[in-house]
Design a protein that fits this description.
elongated, alpha/beta, 7 strands, seven-stranded parallel sheet, 12 helices
Length: about 325
């Protein structure tokens, strides 16, 4: 049996708009994982209500973007808005519309499921015959979100979403142990507000000396976090997560080899954005490059100095 998970949710009020709003808020947190399927009795009506709620969410984020002067938040919101505007909703089966992102289907349309479908929303009763082809095709660690509450998911081999959330905590402990073994404290990084350049650069220099090991651990944590979303965590924990993920973005941006968008997908594709302002200037100012590299050598950050030189040379060859 495929190892899937389930979560039971309740809509805040009666009506199609209410359930559509809750599904869209939930999906918003998981949109980077892959495709999604909503299993319902009236796909056309629920699709229309959901699209309206999706547009409403998009407008909310646009307002958040316009109300901040923080460059990091502006770029993050811009990337999110662009992705949300590109999401395609359909009530056609996957074989008829393979390029869609969110499918609204009846159980009869679920004999073939879209690939990489990690989010399944169920708003109607399902029989065993309905479930078998769905669960058989679901990828490992897919999440079924149940609004109907009549299906005994555990009897079908599914585990509670609590297990996914516990996995996040376990992976986070691995990250913290790795960092502490190299004298990097995530709590100190978070308390500095990620704005203390020296603290971040010291950590970056250390991690560039072991980039493959760090990125592997950070990637495993990030993946567990994506699979468990939406996830309620404390503000302190969220700041620590953000600080470490920002370090991962920067390590990846300055490491040789194939560059993937995985760490950047919730922010912006421009990897130089994740470097401090003076470092970004070096890509257009040779003197700034020499000054910055020399400063890092003087501060005993050889890995960072060499990585910046290599990155600058790579940019010049493009």
């Amino acid at each position: 049996m495929t190892k899937c998970f389930f979560e039971t949710r309740k809509q805040s009020a009666r009506g199609t708009d209410s359930i559509a709003a809750d599904i869209m808020r939930h999906l918003h947190a998981r949109q980077y994982l892959g495709k999604a399927v909503v299993i319902c009795e009236q796909p056309v009506a629920l699709l229309a209500a959901s699209r309206k709620q999706w547009l409403k969410l998009t407008r909310t984020i646009q307002k958040q973007r316009s109300s901040t002067l923080n460059a990091e938040k502006i770029l993050k919101y811009t990337h999110t808005i662009t992705r949300m505007q590109q999401q395609r909703f359909t009530h056609k089966p996957p074989l008829e519309d393979p390029e869609a992102d969110v499918y609204f289907l009846t159980p009869n349309d679920c004999t073939y499921m879209p690939p990489h479908c990690y989010s399944l929303y169920v708003v109607m009763p399902l029989s065993g015959d309905d479930l078998r082809p769905i669960l058989k095709q679901a990828p490992t660690e897919a999440l079924v979100v149940d609004y109907d509450h009549t299906t005994p998911w555990q009897q079908h081999g599914l585990q509670s979403k609590d297990q996914l959330e516990q996995h996040v905590l376990d992976e986070w402990q691995q990250v913290k142990h790795f960092l502490m073994a190299h004298k990097i404290d995530a709590a100190v990084l978070a308390r500095s507000g990620m704005q203390d350049i020296d603290i971040m650069d010291d950590a970056l220099d250390i991690l560039l000396g072991m980039s493959h090991q760090f990125l592997r651990i950070a990637n495993e944590f990030q993946r567990s976090l994506e699979l468990a979303r939406p996830l309620r965590i404390s503000l302190a924990a969220r700041k620590e997560y953000d600080a470490v993920m920002l370090l991962a973005y920067r390590v990846q941006a300055l490491s040789p080899g194939a560059f993937t968008q995985h760490f950047l997908e919730t922010f912006n594709e421009d990897d130089t954005f994740f470097l401090s302002d003076d470092i970004r200037r070096m890509f257009i100012d040779n003197q700034a490059l020499c000054d910055i590299v020399e400063r890092h050598y003087q501060a005993r950050r050889p890995h960072l100095a060499k990585a910046l030189l290599a990155k600058a040379n790579s940019c010049c060859r493009r």
